Amino acid sequence: MQENNGMNNEMKFEDFESMLEDSLNPPSKGSIVKGSVVAINGTDILVNIGYKSEGIIDKSELEKDGKLEVNVGDEIEAIVEGVQGGGGYVRLSRKVLNQQRDFDEILDKFDKNKPVAVKIESSNDKGFLGKAGEIAVFIPSNHIDLRSKTKDQKNYIGKVFNCKILKVDKKAKSILASHKLYIIESAEEEKKKFFEALKVGDKVKGKVKTVKEFGVFINVGAVDGFLHRDNIDWGKVKHPSKYFELDDTVETVVLNIDKENQKIELGLKQLKEDPWDKVKDKYPVDGEAKGRIITRRKKGYVLELEPGIDGFIPEEELSWIKNSNVKLERGDIVEGKVIGIDDEHKKVIMSLRLLTENPWVTLKNNHPEGSVVTGKIKGITDFGLFVDFGAHIDGLVRKLDISWTEEIEDLNEKFKVGDEITAKILKIDEDKERISLGIKQIEKNPWKEIDKLLPAGKVLDVEVTEVNKDNVVVELPKGLTGIIPAKELDEQKVIPEEFCKVGDKLKAVVNKADKREKKVILSVKKYKLDAEKREVKEYLKQIQDKSDSSFNLGALIKDKIDEIK
């Protein structure tokens, strides 16, 4: 016990020596000391720092907003500014200590590229003056905000802004800073972290920032995501403004991430069930569907069957008639038959014509080839007549199918639009959408039976229809025309214009009927010669008859002479 007491006494003595030494040696300038407040006077605060005399600190350094922050007995820390009065008192400063610490902290932040909080206290024509703790800070006018033109400077006074340290003046213990660069770099850092964590399929919430015709920009924190009009709803979206207003809060799903350009594509409809998943159940092939025409495409029409499900009517499915020029208008409600499902383009393929009767089938049933139909001329061209005979499809009578015998040069001289005609259906070509009609085919081709109709040697009463210098044209049965060459008009050489005129009636005999050339050649001369022969023949017959009746030849000759006289 005595040994322990000796050791304790020894330690206490050493401590006492140290304390005594410290109390006799004044603290050096710039050293940091701790002490307790022992007195508060009018302008000073006395602090026991373990020296033979108390330290003195200006009372204003421990006031905030005019209110003292310490009381007698509180322990404080300060820096020694100097020993005055021959060691009589030690001048302390809490402000200088805080300034030193603040400056050390700023140096550390500058080295680590960390921001510093600055409170703006005043401004001038070049920028803003403020404090980061106890350190003076200057922010140039064009570095206070992102805007190219700052607000009224008064709007910044008294506010605290995080800033990037641009430059440190160690001698003046002041810094140059930028709030704008802090915002830019912070945003970039935030974007970087955002994109590192973001994945396709993530759900994100944000506020509508801009509404355009083509889509919506939504701020989701670090960036603005783009929601395309086509990804708003499964149905046709005319304009996004019908779905969103500015500052609306909306949850979307991430569809695509472009980290390089820091862009994301958002989707809203993807959060709902895709109606296309049940399209085959709702719109089976061979079933019927109804929808509204929404647009015209190069090869057909698109219609909306319901939101999220579109139909498509190919051009060839509009009508049974290819060149029908069927036109549908936007907003028209149409009904058709489902003929297929296009999963690749998400379209229900439909047909309008399959819900109507095929006019070609009706035509063939009601008017098969060979049928005789009556219709009205609706068009006249150089090559034929277009006829509407009430079968929804026009027929064509070609020029060469009008008459077996007549060659008509100008159809307008013989026909006019609105005339009713009767014709035979010659051919129905559904692929080419043509119906060939014929007028002349109603009757038999007279040239096929010309040998029976006008055999060589047949005597005809004909009427002159045309007189030329080389021949005479006459009218024959069945609409045929005949030609009497000038040399066949008489035994003597005659001029046709002097021999007869149009309208005269002549007796002629058929010389030749040429099927190939479709010509009938007649002869008046031959008729006359044949007539003389017939007379002689008749005369000889009469002689024979009289001879048989006992009359003598002399008497007959005398009788004949008397007749001539």
Can you describe this structure?
The chain has nine helices and 32 strands. By secondary structure, the chain is of the alpha+beta class. The protein has six domains: 2-97, Beta Barrel (OB fold (Dihydrolipoamide Acetyltransferase, E2P)); 115-185, OB fold (Dihydrolipoamide Acetyltransferase, E2P) (Beta Barrel); 198-271, Nucleic acid-binding proteins (OB fold (Dihydrolipoamide Acetyltransferase, E2P)); 275-355, OB fold (Dihydrolipoamide Acetyltransferase, E2P), CATH 2.40.50; 359-442, Beta Barrel (OB fold (Dihydrolipoamide Acetyltransferase, E2P)), CATH 2.40.50; 454-565, Nucleic acid-binding proteins (OB fold (Dihydrolipoamide Acetyltransferase, E2P), Beta Barrel), CATH 2.40.50. It has a five-stranded mixed beta barrel with strand order 1-2-3-7-6. A five-stranded mixed β-barrel has the order 8-9-10-12-11. A five-stranded mixed beta barrel has the order 13-14-15-17-16. The radius of gyration is 61 Å and the shape is rod-shaped. Mean pLDDT is 85; it is low at 1-11 and 16-23.
What topology does this entry show?
Blueprint: H1 2-24, E1 32-40, E2 44-48, E3 55-58, E4 63-64, E5 67-68, E6 75-84, E7 89-93, H2 94-112, E8 116-123, E9 127-132, E10 135-140, E11 160-169, E12 174-178, H3 179-197, E13 203-211, E14 215-219, E15 224-228, E16 249-258, E17 263-267, H4 279-282, E18 288-297, E19 300-306, E20 309-314, E21 333-342, E22 347-351, H5 359-366, E23 372-380, E24 384-388, E25 395-398, E26 420-429, E27 434-438, H6 450-453, E28 459-467, E29 471-475, E30 481-485, H7 496-499, E31 505-514, E32 519-523, H8 524-548, H9 553-564
Parallel strand pairs: 3-7, 10-12, 15-17, 20-22, 25-27
Antiparallel strand pairs: 1-2, 1-6, 2-3, 4-5, 6-7, 8-9, 8-11, 9-10, 11-12, 13-14, 13-16, 14-15, 16-17, 18-19, 18-21, 19-20, 21-22, 23-24, 23-26, 24-25, 26-27, 28-29, 28-31, 29-30, 31-32
